[in-house]
Design a protein that fits this description.
Helices cover about 40% and strands about 15% of the residues. The chain is built from 13 helices and 12 strands. The strands form 2 sheets. It has an 8-stranded mixed beta sheet, sandwiched between helices. The termini are far apart.
Length: about 425
C-alpha cells in the first residue's frame, strides 16, 4: 500500500508546474497555396509571439497558436488580411492537454506496477519508461538486442539506441530509425517502440525482417526536449541548451546537421526552426551524425519519424531545383509505402521530395543521412494527426497508427532489400 501511495504521488509530480496553455487558441486557415505558405512564413511564423501547432504545408490548412483572446483576434485579422479565411479551431489548448494528462494518469493507475517494464500503445510513454523498456528488451532478447547510448545530451541524458540483429550471415540491409528529435511529437517514439516490439516479442511472425535487416532504433533522439515536453511545456520542440544573449532556449536539432546548415538564414534563437549558432552546436545532433557516419557503407534505409502531416518525404529538403540521382527509386518506394498505408484503413499520405511537397529545410537529418552517411533510401515520415485536436492524436489513436505504420514498413523494407540485392 505504501508503495502504491508513493507511486501515485510520483506520477502526479510528473505533471506539476508545467506551462499552462489556458486560453491559448488555434486558428486554422484555408488550404495553403505556395504563395500563401510564403506569406505565413514571412508574416506569421517569423513573429515569435505566434507558435506553430503544425508546420504549414501546401494543400493543407495552416494551424497557428496565439495567446490568448487578444492576440488571437490580431492573428485572425492578420490571416484575414492575407485572404486566408481564419477559423477558430481550438479555443483553449489547455483543455486538450488536460485530457491527455488525465488519460495517461488513468492508464498508469490502472496498470499500477504491472506494465512499468513493458511497452504500451494505450498511452504515450515518458523518457524513463522508454529507457526501462529498452533495458528490458536487451536483457530479455540478448541474442538479438543490444542497448547502446550514442552519446549524452546537453543535460546529461543518454540517447539510447537499440540495435537488433540476428547476425545469421544472410546479406542484410542496414536500417536506422529515429523518433522524437522534435520533442513535442510524441507519436514518433510510440512508432519506434512498436518496431522494437514487433521484432522482439512478436519475432516469430516477423522473423523475415531480422533476416533481411540490421536495425538501429533511436526512439528518443532529443531526450532533454522530450523530458521538458512532459514536465514543463507540452509544445516544446527544440533542444534545451541556453543561447547566449537570449532568453530563448535551444535550437531545432533537425536544422543543426552539417548539410547546407544555416542556409535558411534564421538567426533568432526564439524561432521554432532556429538552426543553432553553428553546425552541431547541439550535441544531440552531433551524436546522431557521428553514429550515422559510423554506419556509412552499411546504411541503406534511413527514417526520421515526425508528426504530423501524413507525408513521406525524401531528399532533397534543401533545394527544389535539383533531384537526387536515385530520385525515381526513392519516389517509387514511397509510392508503394503510401499505397500500403492507404490499404490498411484509408490513411492517405502524400509523398515526394521534401522541398517540393513541404518547404525547404536546411541542415536536416534526412538530407544528411542521404548525402553524408550514404543511405540509399532516406525519408522523413510525418505521421497522421489527431483530427481536430491537431498535434498528437488522443491515446486511442496510437494503436491504429503504429499498426498501419508497421504494415507499411514491411513493404518498404522488402522493396529496399530487393533493390540493394536484386534477383
Ligand atoms: O520541419 C521539419 O523539421 C519537419 N517537419 S515537422 O513538422 N515535424 O517539424 C520536416 C522536415 C522535412 N524536410 C524538409 N521539409 N525539407
Ligand atoms: Zn518534427
Amino acid at each position: 500500500m505504501k508503495k502504491l501511495i508513493s507511486f501515485i504521488f510520483l506520477i502526479s509530480l510528473v505533471f506539476v508546474d508545467s506551462k499552462s496553455y489556458e486560453g491559448y487558441q488555434v486558428y486554422q486557415t484555408a488550404p495553403l497555396t505556395w504563395e500563401s505558405l510564403k506569406l505565413i512564413h514571412d508574416n506569421v511564423l517569423r513573429n515569435s509571439i505566434y507558435q506553430i501547432w503544425n508546420e504549414p504545408k501546401v494543400g493543407l490548412p495552416a494551424q497557428i497558436v496565439a495567446c490568448c483572446q487578444h492576440s488571437g483576434k490580431e492573428l485572425a485579422n492578420l490571416l484575414e488580411s492575407m485572404d486566408l479565411r481564419p477559423q477558430l479551431l481550438v479555443d483553449n489548448i489547455e483543455r486538450i492537454f488536460q485530457q491527455e494528462r488525465e488519460q495517461i494518469d488513468l492508464i498508469r493507475k490502472r496498470d499500477e506496477f504491472s506494465t512499468s517494464r513493458n511497452v504500451t500503445f494505450e498511452r504515450f510513454m515518458d523518457y524513463d519508461e522508454i529507457s526501462l523498456y529498452l533495458t528490458e528488451v536487451a536483457a530479455t532478447y540478448p541474442e538479438i538486442a543490444q542497448l547502446a547510448s550514442i552519446g549524452t545530451s546537453y543535460e546529461g541524458r543518454q540517447q539510447n539506441l537499440l540495435k537488433l540483429s540476428n547476425g545469421n550471415g544472410v546479406p542484410k540491409i542496414g536500417i536506422f530509425i529515429d523518433a522524437g528529435i522534435h520533442a513535442a511529437e510524441w507519436l514518433g517514439p510510440s512508432v519506434a517502440l512498436n518496431t522494437i516490439f514487433q521484432l522482439t516479442a512478436n519475432s516469430s511472425a516477423n522473423q523475415v525482417f531480422l533476416d533481411m535487416a540490421d536495425w538501429y532504433i533511436l526512439p528518443v533522439a532529443n531526450p532533454d526536449g522530450y523530458v521538458f515536453s512532459w514536465t514543463e511545456d507540452r509544445l516544446w520542440r527544440k533542444t534545451r541548451r541556453p543561447n547566449e544573449g537570449s532568453d530563448c532556449v535551444g535550437a531545432d536539432p533537425n536544422r543543426n546537421f552539417d548539410n547546407h546548415w544555416g542556409e535558411g538564414g534564421e538567426t533568432d534563437p526564439c524561432l521554432w526552426n532556429y538552426p543553432g549558432p553553428n553546425v552541431y552546436s547541439e550535441i544531440e545532433s552531433k551524436n546522431i551524425a557521428d553514429y550515422l557516419l559510423s554506419l556509412k557503407g552499411d546504411l541503406h534505409l534511413y527514417i526520421a519519424t515526425h508528426s504530423y502531416g501524413q507525408l513521406l518525404l525524401h531528399p532533397y529538403g534543401y533545394t527544389t531545383s535539383e533531384v537526387p540521382p536515385n530520385y525515381n527509386e526513392m519516389y517509387s518506394a514511397a509510392n508503394l509505402t503510401a499505397s500500403v498505408l492507404e490499404s490498411v484503413r484509408g490513411t492517405e499520405y502524400t509523398f515526394g521530395s521534401s522541398g517540393v511537397v513541404l518547404y525547404l529545410a536546411f541542415g536536416n537529418t534526412q538530407d544528411f543521412a542521404y548525402e553524408a552517411a550514404g543511405a540509399r533510401f532516406s525519408y522523413t515520415w510525418e505521421l497522421p494527426a489527431g483530427g481536430p485536436n491537431g498535434n498528437d492524436p488522443p491515446a486511442t489513436d496510437i494503436k491504429p497508427v503504429v499498426e498501419e505504420t508497421w504494415a507499411a514498413y514491411q513493404a518498404l523494407i522488402q522493396r529496399v532489400y530487393d533493390t540493394v540485392y536484386p534477383n
